[in-house]
Amino acid sequence: MKQTLSLVMIVKNEESTLERCLSSIVSSVNEVVIVDTGSTDSTKQIALKYGALIFDYQWNGDFAEARNFALSKSTSQWNLVLDADEYISNNCGNVIQQFIKGEPAIGRVKIVDKFMGSDGISFEQNYISRLLPSSCRYMGRIHEQVVSNLPRIIVDVEVQHDGYFQQKKSDRNIPILKQEITDNPNNPYYHYQIAKEYRGLENHEDSYLHLKKAYSLITHKEGYAPSLIVNFMYAIMSSGHLSDGLVVIENEEEFLKSFADFQFVSGLYLLELILSNPDQYGKLLPYIERFYLCAIEIGETGLEGSVIGTGSFAAHHNLGVFYEVVGNIQKAKEQYVKATAYDYKPSLDRLINLG
After folding, report:
1. Structure confidence by residue, pLDDT tens digits, 69-120
2. DSSP states of 233-286 as a string?
3. Which stretches within 77-169 are classed as H helix?
4. Residue limits of the Glycosyltransferase 2-like domain (predicted)?
5. How far is Cα 10 from Cα 327, in angstroms, rounded to an integer?
Protein backbone atom coordinates (compact mmCIF):
# COMPACT_ATOMS: atom_id res chain seq x y z
CA MET A 1 0.00 0.00 0.00
CA LYS A 2 1.34 3.42 -0.94
CA GLN A 3 2.37 5.50 2.07
CA THR A 4 1.38 9.15 2.27
CA LEU A 5 3.77 11.92 3.27
CA SER A 6 3.17 15.45 4.55
CA LEU A 7 5.64 18.33 4.67
CA VAL A 8 5.16 19.89 8.13
CA MET A 9 6.55 23.34 8.98
CA ILE A 10 6.27 26.11 11.53
CA VAL A 11 6.97 29.58 10.11
CA LYS A 12 6.98 33.29 10.86
CA ASN A 13 7.86 36.05 8.37
CA GLU A 14 9.67 33.73 5.97
CA GLU A 15 8.86 35.41 2.65
CA SER A 16 12.54 35.56 1.65
CA THR A 17 13.13 31.79 1.87
CA LEU A 18 9.82 29.90 1.98
CA GLU A 19 9.33 29.54 -1.76
CA ARG A 20 12.83 28.11 -2.18
CA CYS A 21 12.01 25.51 0.47
CA LEU A 22 8.60 24.55 -0.86
CA SER A 23 9.67 24.33 -4.49
CA SER A 24 12.48 21.93 -3.55
CA ILE A 25 10.16 19.26 -2.09
CA VAL A 26 6.49 19.87 -2.94
CA SER A 27 6.46 17.36 -5.81
CA SER A 28 7.49 14.58 -3.41
CA VAL A 29 4.78 15.07 -0.76
CA ASN A 30 1.03 14.53 -0.64
CA GLU A 31 0.28 17.46 1.62
CA VAL A 32 1.88 20.67 2.91
CA VAL A 33 1.01 21.70 6.47
CA ILE A 34 2.10 25.21 7.49
CA VAL A 35 1.67 26.48 11.03
CA ASP A 36 2.14 30.25 11.18
CA THR A 37 3.14 31.83 14.48
CA GLY A 38 2.36 35.43 13.56
CA SER A 39 3.63 36.44 10.12
CA THR A 40 3.11 40.03 9.00
CA ASP A 41 4.68 39.66 5.54
CA SER A 42 3.64 37.57 2.51
CA THR A 43 4.50 34.19 4.04
CA LYS A 44 0.92 32.91 3.95
CA GLN A 45 0.36 34.02 0.37
CA ILE A 46 3.49 32.14 -0.74
CA ALA A 47 2.34 29.02 1.13
CA LEU A 48 -1.06 29.18 -0.56
CA LYS A 49 0.63 29.14 -3.99
CA TYR A 50 1.81 25.65 -3.12
CA GLY A 51 -1.58 24.44 -1.90
CA ALA A 52 -0.59 24.47 1.75
CA LEU A 53 -3.00 23.96 4.60
CA ILE A 54 -2.35 26.94 6.89
CA PHE A 55 -3.04 27.05 10.61
CA ASP A 56 -2.47 29.95 12.99
CA TYR A 57 -0.70 29.33 16.29
CA GLN A 58 -0.01 31.59 19.24
CA TRP A 59 3.75 31.38 19.86
CA ASN A 60 4.55 30.58 23.51
CA GLY A 61 8.33 30.17 23.41
CA ASP A 62 8.24 26.37 23.10
CA PHE A 63 9.35 24.86 19.78
CA ALA A 64 8.27 21.33 20.72
CA GLU A 65 4.71 22.43 21.44
CA ALA A 66 4.54 24.31 18.13
CA ARG A 67 5.97 21.35 16.20
CA ASN A 68 3.55 18.96 17.89
CA PHE A 69 0.61 21.20 17.03
CA ALA A 70 1.76 21.20 13.40
CA LEU A 71 2.18 17.41 13.38
CA SER A 72 -1.34 17.03 14.78
CA LYS A 73 -2.71 18.77 11.66
CA SER A 74 -1.09 16.31 9.27
CA THR A 75 -3.36 13.67 7.72
CA SER A 76 -0.55 11.51 6.32
CA GLN A 77 1.09 8.35 7.60
CA TRP A 78 4.53 10.01 7.50
CA ASN A 79 5.81 13.53 8.06
CA LEU A 80 8.85 15.36 6.75
CA VAL A 81 9.82 18.29 9.01
CA LEU A 82 11.65 21.25 7.47
CA ASP A 83 12.25 24.90 8.37
CA ALA A 84 11.75 27.72 5.90
CA ASP A 85 15.46 28.55 5.81
CA GLU A 86 16.19 25.01 4.58
CA TYR A 87 15.78 23.36 1.20
CA ILE A 88 16.33 19.94 -0.33
CA SER A 89 19.44 19.87 -2.54
CA ASN A 90 19.44 16.34 -3.95
CA ASN A 91 17.01 14.24 -5.97
CA CYS A 92 15.57 12.19 -3.13
CA GLY A 93 11.89 11.59 -3.91
CA ASN A 94 12.38 7.90 -4.70
CA VAL A 95 14.69 7.44 -1.71
CA ILE A 96 12.04 8.86 0.62
CA GLN A 97 9.35 6.60 -0.86
CA GLN A 98 11.52 3.53 -0.41
CA PHE A 99 12.20 4.48 3.19
CA ILE A 100 8.58 5.07 4.19
CA LYS A 101 7.51 1.78 2.57
CA GLY A 102 9.82 -0.09 4.93
CA GLU A 103 9.55 -1.01 8.58
CA PRO A 104 8.66 1.85 10.96
CA ALA A 105 11.77 3.90 11.72
CA ILE A 106 12.91 7.50 12.02
CA GLY A 107 14.83 8.91 9.08
CA ARG A 108 17.89 11.04 9.80
CA VAL A 109 18.70 13.45 6.98
CA LYS A 110 21.93 15.33 6.34
CA ILE A 111 21.69 19.02 7.25
CA VAL A 112 24.46 21.15 5.75
CA ASP A 113 24.78 24.33 7.82
CA LYS A 114 26.34 27.34 6.11
CA PHE A 115 28.36 29.63 8.38
CA MET A 116 31.13 32.22 8.22
CA GLY A 117 34.42 30.70 9.36
CA SER A 118 37.75 32.38 9.93
CA ASP A 119 38.78 31.75 6.31
CA GLY A 120 35.43 32.55 4.73
CA ILE A 121 32.27 30.55 4.11
CA SER A 122 32.26 27.07 5.66
CA PHE A 123 29.79 24.18 5.86
CA GLU A 124 29.10 21.86 8.80
CA GLN A 125 27.31 18.53 8.35
CA ASN A 126 24.86 17.04 10.85
CA TYR A 127 22.30 14.25 10.74
CA ILE A 128 18.92 15.18 12.20
CA SER A 129 15.73 13.15 12.69
CA ARG A 130 13.26 14.64 10.20
CA LEU A 131 11.34 11.76 8.51
CA LEU A 132 8.82 10.65 11.10
CA PRO A 133 5.93 8.19 11.36
CA SER A 134 2.72 10.04 12.18
CA SER A 135 2.81 8.88 15.81
CA CYS A 136 6.06 10.73 16.63
CA ARG A 137 6.16 13.89 18.70
CA TYR A 138 8.82 16.29 20.05
CA MET A 139 10.00 17.45 23.46
CA GLY A 140 12.19 20.43 24.46
CA ARG A 141 11.58 24.16 24.27
CA ILE A 142 14.40 24.64 21.76
CA HIS A 143 16.63 22.35 19.69
CA GLU A 144 13.75 20.00 20.26
CA GLN A 145 14.20 16.24 19.99
CA VAL A 146 11.96 13.49 18.65
CA VAL A 147 10.72 11.20 21.44
CA SER A 148 10.65 7.62 20.16
CA ASN A 149 12.20 4.19 20.65
CA LEU A 150 12.10 3.49 16.93
CA PRO A 151 15.44 2.85 15.20
CA ARG A 152 17.04 5.89 13.58
CA ILE A 153 18.35 5.35 10.08
CA ILE A 154 20.32 7.73 7.85
CA VAL A 155 18.41 8.42 4.63
CA ASP A 156 20.03 9.91 1.53
CA VAL A 157 18.28 13.27 1.83
CA GLU A 158 20.46 16.38 1.79
CA VAL A 159 19.14 19.63 3.22
CA GLN A 160 20.91 22.98 2.90
CA HIS A 161 20.47 25.39 5.82
CA ASP A 162 21.58 29.02 5.78
CA GLY A 163 19.32 30.54 8.42
CA TYR A 164 22.25 31.41 10.71
CA PHE A 165 24.57 32.60 7.95
CA GLN A 166 25.37 36.24 8.73
CA GLN A 167 22.24 36.33 10.86
CA LYS A 168 21.72 36.12 14.61
CA LYS A 169 18.70 34.65 16.37
CA SER A 170 20.21 34.91 19.83
CA ASP A 171 17.58 37.34 21.13
CA ARG A 172 15.06 34.56 20.66
CA ASN A 173 17.22 31.52 21.43
CA ILE A 174 19.29 32.51 24.47
CA PRO A 175 16.37 33.20 26.86
CA ILE A 176 14.79 29.85 25.95
CA LEU A 177 18.11 28.03 26.40
CA LYS A 178 18.68 29.75 29.75
CA GLN A 179 15.31 28.46 30.92
CA GLU A 180 16.17 24.94 29.77
CA ILE A 181 19.48 25.13 31.65
CA THR A 182 17.67 26.32 34.77
CA ASP A 183 15.34 23.33 34.51
CA ASN A 184 18.08 20.89 33.41
CA PRO A 185 21.38 22.23 34.78
CA ASN A 186 23.30 19.01 34.11
CA ASN A 187 22.14 18.44 30.55
CA PRO A 188 25.26 18.98 28.39
CA TYR A 189 23.21 19.49 25.22
CA TYR A 190 21.75 22.81 26.34
CA HIS A 191 25.12 24.11 27.53
CA TYR A 192 26.53 23.12 24.13
CA GLN A 193 23.76 24.93 22.25
CA ILE A 194 23.90 28.14 24.29
CA ALA A 195 27.68 28.18 23.84
CA LYS A 196 27.17 28.26 20.07
CA GLU A 197 24.81 31.21 20.48
CA TYR A 198 27.41 33.10 22.54
CA ARG A 199 30.08 32.28 19.95
CA GLY A 200 27.88 33.91 17.29
CA LEU A 201 27.79 37.02 19.46
CA GLU A 202 31.59 36.83 19.89
CA ASN A 203 31.06 36.43 23.63
CA HIS A 204 33.91 33.95 23.82
CA GLU A 205 34.19 33.80 27.60
CA ASP A 206 30.59 32.69 28.13
CA SER A 207 30.89 30.28 25.20
CA TYR A 208 34.00 28.78 26.82
CA LEU A 209 32.34 28.48 30.25
CA HIS A 210 29.30 26.64 28.91
CA LEU A 211 31.39 24.33 26.75
CA LYS A 212 33.64 23.57 29.70
CA LYS A 213 30.54 22.65 31.69
CA ALA A 214 29.15 20.59 28.82
CA TYR A 215 32.48 18.80 28.38
CA SER A 216 32.50 17.83 32.05
CA LEU A 217 29.02 16.30 31.69
CA ILE A 218 29.20 14.27 28.46
CA THR A 219 29.41 10.48 28.54
CA HIS A 220 30.97 10.33 25.03
CA LYS A 221 27.98 8.28 23.86
CA GLU A 222 26.20 11.41 22.63
CA GLY A 223 26.07 11.80 18.85
CA TYR A 224 27.13 15.43 19.23
CA ALA A 225 30.08 14.65 21.55
CA PRO A 226 32.79 14.95 18.86
CA SER A 227 31.44 18.31 17.70
CA LEU A 228 31.17 19.53 21.30
CA ILE A 229 34.80 18.63 21.99
CA VAL A 230 35.99 20.35 18.80
CA ASN A 231 33.94 23.43 19.64
CA PHE A 232 35.46 23.42 23.12
CA MET A 233 38.93 23.49 21.57
CA TYR A 234 37.98 26.50 19.45
CA ALA A 235 36.50 28.22 22.53
CA ILE A 236 39.72 27.56 24.46
CA MET A 237 41.61 29.45 21.76
CA SER A 238 39.07 32.26 21.34
CA SER A 239 38.83 32.91 25.08
CA GLY A 240 42.55 32.67 25.77
CA HIS A 241 42.31 29.72 28.19
CA LEU A 242 45.10 27.97 26.32
CA SER A 243 46.25 25.89 29.27
CA ASP A 244 43.10 23.73 29.02
CA GLY A 245 43.77 22.42 25.53
CA LEU A 246 46.62 19.99 26.11
CA VAL A 247 44.55 18.00 28.59
CA VAL A 248 41.65 17.79 26.13
CA ILE A 249 43.96 16.56 23.35
CA GLU A 250 45.51 13.96 25.65
CA ASN A 251 42.11 12.75 26.87
CA GLU A 252 40.38 12.65 23.48
CA GLU A 253 43.07 11.59 21.02
CA GLU A 254 41.96 7.95 21.07
CA PHE A 255 38.22 8.73 21.08
CA LEU A 256 38.53 11.10 18.11
CA LYS A 257 41.31 9.38 16.18
CA SER A 258 39.01 9.07 13.12
CA PHE A 259 37.54 12.59 13.32
CA ALA A 260 39.41 14.93 10.97
CA ASP A 261 38.00 18.04 12.64
CA PHE A 262 39.70 17.11 15.91
CA GLN A 263 43.06 16.57 14.22
CA PHE A 264 42.61 19.87 12.41
CA VAL A 265 41.73 21.93 15.48
CA SER A 266 44.55 20.28 17.44
CA GLY A 267 47.03 21.55 14.85
CA LEU A 268 45.54 25.04 15.05
CA TYR A 269 45.63 24.98 18.83
CA LEU A 270 49.24 23.84 19.08
CA LEU A 271 50.44 26.64 16.83
CA GLU A 272 48.64 29.20 18.99
CA LEU A 273 49.98 27.61 22.17
CA ILE A 274 53.56 27.63 20.87
CA LEU A 275 53.30 31.25 19.76
CA SER A 276 52.06 32.18 23.25
CA ASN A 277 55.23 30.79 24.87
CA PRO A 278 57.85 29.45 22.43
CA ASP A 279 60.35 28.62 25.19
CA GLN A 280 57.89 26.45 27.08
CA TYR A 281 56.01 24.84 24.20
CA GLY A 282 58.37 25.00 21.21
CA LYS A 283 59.18 21.30 21.55
CA LEU A 284 55.59 20.52 20.46
CA LEU A 285 56.13 22.01 16.98
CA PRO A 286 56.49 18.64 15.15
CA TYR A 287 53.06 17.55 16.39
CA ILE A 288 51.41 20.24 14.25
CA GLU A 289 52.57 18.49 11.09
CA ARG A 290 51.43 15.15 12.47
CA PHE A 291 47.91 16.41 13.24
CA TYR A 292 47.38 17.93 9.78
CA LEU A 293 48.76 14.84 8.03
CA CYS A 294 46.41 12.73 10.10
CA ALA A 295 43.43 14.93 9.14
CA ILE A 296 44.36 14.54 5.45
CA GLU A 297 44.72 10.77 5.84
CA ILE A 298 41.26 10.56 7.43
CA GLY A 299 39.80 12.68 4.63
CA GLU A 300 36.24 13.88 4.19
CA THR A 301 34.12 11.37 6.08
CA GLY A 302 30.82 13.24 6.34
CA LEU A 303 30.65 12.34 10.04
CA GLU A 304 28.21 14.08 12.36
CA GLY A 305 29.40 17.60 13.13
CA SER A 306 32.25 17.60 10.61
CA VAL A 307 33.14 20.76 8.70
CA ILE A 308 33.82 20.31 5.01
CA GLY A 309 37.50 20.91 4.29
CA THR A 310 39.07 19.81 7.56
CA GLY A 311 40.01 16.51 5.92
CA SER A 312 41.03 18.04 2.59
CA PHE A 313 41.66 21.57 1.33
CA ALA A 314 41.75 23.39 4.69
CA ALA A 315 44.14 20.80 6.15
CA HIS A 316 46.40 21.00 3.07
CA HIS A 317 46.40 24.80 3.33
CA ASN A 318 47.21 24.89 7.05
CA LEU A 319 49.93 22.31 6.56
CA GLY A 320 51.32 24.56 3.86
CA VAL A 321 51.31 27.47 6.28
CA PHE A 322 53.16 25.31 8.80
CA TYR A 323 55.84 24.38 6.25
CA GLU A 324 56.15 28.02 5.27
CA VAL A 325 56.62 29.05 8.92
CA VAL A 326 59.40 26.50 9.43
CA GLY A 327 61.08 27.55 6.18
CA ASN A 328 60.29 24.57 3.93
CA ILE A 329 58.92 26.55 1.01
CA GLN A 330 58.93 23.63 -1.43
CA LYS A 331 56.73 21.52 0.83
CA ALA A 332 54.51 24.54 1.48
CA LYS A 333 53.95 25.00 -2.25
CA GLU A 334 53.11 21.30 -2.65
CA GLN A 335 50.38 21.58 -0.03
CA TYR A 336 49.00 24.80 -1.47
CA VAL A 337 48.81 23.18 -4.91
CA LYS A 338 46.82 20.28 -3.42
CA ALA A 339 44.43 22.73 -1.78
CA THR A 340 43.94 24.70 -5.01
CA ALA A 341 42.66 21.48 -6.62
CA TYR A 342 39.56 22.20 -4.53
CA ASP A 343 39.44 25.84 -5.75
CA TYR A 344 40.54 27.01 -2.33
CA LYS A 345 41.37 30.67 -2.88
CA PRO A 346 43.57 31.29 0.23
CA SER A 347 46.02 28.68 -1.09
CA LEU A 348 46.04 30.23 -4.54
CA ASP A 349 46.81 33.59 -2.93
CA ARG A 350 49.72 32.04 -1.02
CA LEU A 351 51.12 30.48 -4.21
CA ILE A 352 50.97 33.82 -5.99
CA ASN A 353 52.70 35.47 -3.04
CA LEU A 354 55.43 32.82 -3.13
CA GLY A 355 55.92 33.35 -6.84
Report:
1. 999 999 999 999 999 999 999 999 999 999 999 999 999 999 999 988 777 7
2. HHHHHHHT-GGGHHHHHHHHTTTTTT-HHHHHHHHHHHHHHHHH-HHHHGGGHH
3. 93-100
4. 6-106
5. 55
My answer on whether 306 and 209 are in the same domain is: yes
Residue 353 lies in a domain: no
214: Cβ–Cβ under 8 A, 6 or more apart, which residues? 188, 189, 191, 192, 195, 228, 232
Could you tell me if 6 and 75 are in contact, meaning their C-beta atoms sit under 8 angstroms apart? yes
Looking at the structure, tell me whether residues 294 and 210 fall in a common domain: yes
Q: How many domains does the chain have?
A: 2
Side-chain half-sphere CA neighbours of 315 within 13 A: 28
- Report which DSSP code applies to 17: T
Q: CA–CA separation, 231 vs 262, rounded Å?
A: 9
Find the helix or strand (DSSP H, E) in which 176 lies: helix 170-183
Contact residues for 20 (Cβ-Cβ < 8 A; gap 6+): 87
| Residues 278, 234 share a domain | yes
Print the domain residue range for 272: 170-311
